[in-house]
Amino acid sequence: MNMKHTMKKLLLAAMIVSTPLFAQVKEDVAVPYIAFPIKMGKGFDTVQANCLTCHSFGYMINQGKQSREFWEEKVNKMIHAFKADLISQEDAKIITDYLFEQYGNGKLK
Amino acid sequence: MERRSFIKTALSAAGAAALGSTGLNAGTTRQPIDNREISEVAFPEKRPMITYSDRPPLLESTRDVFAYPITPNDQFFVRWHMPDIPTKIDPKNYTIHINGLVNKELHITLDELKNNFEQVEVTAVLQCGGNSRSAFQPTAGGIQWGSGAMGCAKWKGVRLSDLLDRAGLKKEAAWIGFNGQDNAAYYKTPNFVRELHLDELDDHVIVAYEMNGEDLPYLNGYPVRLVIPGYYSDSWVKMLSNITVTDKYKSLFFMDVAYRVPDNECECETPENRAKTTKPITKMNVKSVIGYPSNNSKLNHDSQVVIRGVAFDSGHGIREVLISLDEGKTWENAILDDGGQGRYGFRSFRFGFKPTKYGKMTIMSKAINNIGHEQPFAKDIKWNHGGYKYNGIDEITVEVV
Hints:
By secondary structure, chain A is an all-alpha fold.
């Protein structure tokens, strides 16, 4: 599925106008899987079991370093706004602890 | 700004990923993070791009595409909200439903859309409200985009007003809800629905099936998406399948919680003192981005350099773009293109100069629109917790060798 590319910086010499294609992709579209470099640590198993149902690790690690309160709010948003209510209160705390430990800014608020 | 590589090549065949991290110098706004490397993995119909997530897909364009007034489809940024987007679209049977407070419910196929209505084109900038979010310090919540969560394309489709006229609006009609085809992993998750008040919808709003002369790329909302020139992209619903007319505003997560800024004069707040009330982000502010040269590149001493970039706003149009080569002390006019893309598109600018001093130098661009709004310096941008609407004067650093 994944073709490995080595990419050179491309200079666009000209805009190429191609004829309109009727649906460029004719079969099922395959969105590639990317192995994001997630940090290992206490609670990681719980994170893996709960978070990947809906989104990649990339979504988590690209939020920047954040406060404990921020991560707590994010986890709560997943449970309440996005209805991931299979996440138990216990797991929510483990996930928050993990996120703050690995991707925290050291501040509680 | 310090050059950082945000990419660690992963050991798997899947390749590289962006790693977000930001220094913490509290309470300041700086230039957005730039020069993130592109992934080794290409997404469908795209070249490899800066990749924040595969599920949902979040892809950013690199700065160099902004040397041109049109952004190529295969380098156009991507942002979805839901994990499940249909992986197969049957263009023959795809239908857009128009229902609610209408005299006649409509079920319009792609074919009918292309043949039974007047076809119109508009060139317009599509920009995420969180574009350049990585400029905000302390880190604002959300994906830490550089300045590449935007692009400009020529969109072709049918006026929304023509579709609504064909259905016939009942007199109590006030709100139009737009729903796309992306789905949540959980049945109960709110769908990504946007609602717009009838007053906000003018003749420039189109239901588009073509982008730069081709079908919309799958990841940009194939087969049809809403195009709302001048508005941030959260309202430009992708894979549009349902248009529902109502008389009352329905409370919706993505309207009431996400994509909002403080409802005060400066649209700002502090981390310690959050604004009590918020409002949707809606219209874009004036902005410019330098496409060439790129950050931390080298220029030859005494060579003839042409700086290129793009400027845009919510549709008033760009009056001038100014360039500073001395950290904002003095400004000179760049040459603007003829404005042929119209008031909603990128207006490209160029500025020739000869670097005569060796060493590091900064290049800044500042756009001013037709009603006199101009970009503030990055450091003067006021913070908001969602990291929305950054439009600081763009700045790059180059070395003259």
